[in-house]
Specification:
7 helices; 238 residues; 6-stranded mixed β-sheet; alpha/beta
């Protein structure tokens, strides 16, 4: 199994827990790895896959996004790390009819939701969910941060999409995306939603990909696309 070749033969002293959580996850991730090998991109991903758990998970988010776009939604991946604005690399390019769509994958993790004291005290080195821990969450904030981070990479003449494959404490729902993207008033962090005006018009939309293992049912895959009504170049996800 390709998964074993990559992960099981290495010593990983910086992982927070046993990974992956079950053999079902191992089998699922192996499909993504076989796909990326078929696309002749595995060697490029290997250094990140064999690095820290954070870098590994970022790489797997990109790989899963490519895998699901091509195998489920029939968008062929035709480019990897193509140059965008100021020579910055954009993760994926997909083909939609005669169009090319440039996709930047962002994978905000729960570590980004820790406050400065928690980081200082080593909370990020523990498991994601700690017994008895109670916290306030603002899922709209990492959504905005992901969009803001991707924005400078995109060229205005292209169709550009931000893909979010997150691992936050609580997975954001449609209400969180509405708040982050479409809220017309500056109610949160003194900013209005990023798609409430033309400020982020270079971005065609945001695609949220979700994957969870449901007990007794198997994997549940969902996707939600949020169009930017002010986009310079509109794109509709099928």
């Amino acid at each position: 199994m390709l998964f074993d070749e990559i992960f099981r033969k290495q010593s990983r002293n910086n992982d927070k827990s046993i990974w992956p959580a079950s053999e079902k996850w191992t089998t699922e991730i192996n499909k993504w790895l076989e796909f990326i090998k078929y696309k002749k991109e595995l060697e490029r991903y290997l250094p990140r896959l064999k690095d820290s758990s954070a870098r590994r998970d970022d790489a797997l988010s990109e790989i899963y996004s490519a895998y699901i776009l091509e195998t489920k939604f029939n968008y062929k991946i035709i480019g990897w790390e193509e140059k965008g604005n100021n020579g910055k690399d954009i993760d994926l390019v997909i083909k939609d009819g005669n169009d090319k769509v440039y996709c930047e994958v962002k994978s905000p993790g729960w570590e980004s939701e820790l406050n400065s004291n928690e980081r200082k005290n080593g909370r990020s080195r523990l498991e994601k969910h700690a017994n008895g821990e109670v916290r306030g969450i603002t899922p709209w904030r990492p959504i905005r941060y992901a969009v803001k981070k991707a924005y400078p990479k995109f060229l205005a003449g292209n169709k550009n999409v931000v893909i979010i494959k997150d691992d936050l404490f609580i997975e954001p729902d449609s209400g969180d995306f509405e708040m982050a993207l479409y809220e017309p008033k500056p109610l949160f962090d003194n900013e209005s939603g990023y798609f409430a005006d033309a400020g982020y018009g270079v971005i065609s939309g945001v695609l949220h990909l979700q994957l969870k293992l449901v007990s007794g049912q198997g994997f549940e895959r969902t996707s939600n696309y949020y169009k930017n009504p002010f986009a310079l170049n509109m794109w509709a996800f099928n």
